[in-house]
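Task: complex structure prediction.
Instruction: return structure tokens for all chains below.
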Amino acid sequence: MSTNAISSPPARVATVAELRDLITAHGNVSPEYATKMFHPVPDLPTVKDRAGYLVAKATGRIVLDVGCVGQISANIKAVAKAYYGIDKANGNGWATVDVDHAPHEMPVYPDVDLIIASELLEHLANPGYFLAMLRDKYPGIPVYITVPCACGYQVRNDCEVVNKDHVAWYSYTTLNTLLTRYGYAIQEARWYNGQPHKAEGLIALVK
Amino acid sequence: MKLTHWMRRENSGLAYTTLELVEEEQRQGHMIRVHEPSVPTPILDTFEGPPDIHCIHSQLSHLTYHDAIPKVMWMHGEPLGSVGNGISMRAILDLAPICEAFICMRKEEWPVWNSIRRTYVVTKGIDLARYRPLDPALEKLPGKPAVIYYENWRGQRNPLYLCLAMQEVAKQLPEAKLYLYNCPGGKMADTFQRMIEHCRWYTFIKALKGPQQDVNTLLNRGDIVVSCLYPLYARGIEALGAGKAFIAPGYKESGYPYVCDLEPASIGEAILKCWNEYGNFNFREWAERKHDVAETVKESVDVYKRYL
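Output:
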């Protein structure tokens, strides 16, 4: 005699096979709950090194790098055929734009054939606004987006381990939902630095 | 006969076993109804009016307690576990006075259940049309042998001893691989992932995954299915239906050549013996002789007839 509790609404099926499918698909929860809350994640490959992966993808391309301050951006610039940068920080060699609050001010570089927005979305309070503007200004251009993954959430000594400038955690599903709402579709995705569902982050090629 | 089965809609071996019984009863010409105890209308219904008998698998609506229709309770769980979980055995004792009889599927359990209510033992059968060798054969999982674990993981019901057994097996059979399926995720998955990494079991453990939609397909891709259950063996006998070897500490059927005890060395020895002799024993034929749900239904209907 089982002791598993069930939270399922009344349901009616015509055959034993249908009943079996119902049980197999949803386990101990109602179909309504399962539809709302259970979202399959593709069997994604893993890359160890996000930086190395992005640099390899940028090699020989005309790159727009959004959020371009840091060593990875320097490495991307070194291998790109041509390179444009955008960052909210002032500096030489890139356009200064606050893509969180004023993404409409992003410049348009007509020859760009690859956009990289690495570890950017989690800093933005208005990621949808940024994505909408990016797609408006660079329609059809593939974008590599990387984010720390919610599955990397850690607590040490009662402290959450998270960059103090971040305002969100993304999972595969929440990232996919955000991108879809703003007209992008994931073409391919990877975990980086860790096992599936345990990795530090996600890399998505979107278009 | 008109048979009402009382079961909860849950992802468990109990539910799958019950559905296979129901399906086979239909094949044998009986009319069936499946009812959840807490829901007023049946989930599945093929007849009008009251049933000839109530078959209880997990609880029973209180509205039927005193309806003068015979009641037989199926004992799916293992007695020690039923006491151990603090609920099941008490629920069984609550229902026992209104039941005509119990049915269990392992003769070793009979003395326990029979001490509570008159108990009949029937064949522990599976649907051999569902669990069968696929033709053409599927591409096999890598590994010689490819060992599969796909138990419903719960607390102490986990593959720890099998992992240790495979560590020893891999010393003699470097190409042996273990595939862990049905992992529930959460802390259990974390624990095993950490053990795999810490103990360097990744050399032979090739998968730590959740449920597979089509169990028969999975079984057909392996060589040996191992369960760590004791003293019962639950749904692992589906492997035999698929023509694959099945090894479990709780499976000690007379005449079955690959038995073991619940300790890693014994499980490992059984795997090695089984692989060394692979091809000599016809597992499908064994399943047809020992675990056909058609026999289960015939035997249980004979029990029901005693109380009409």
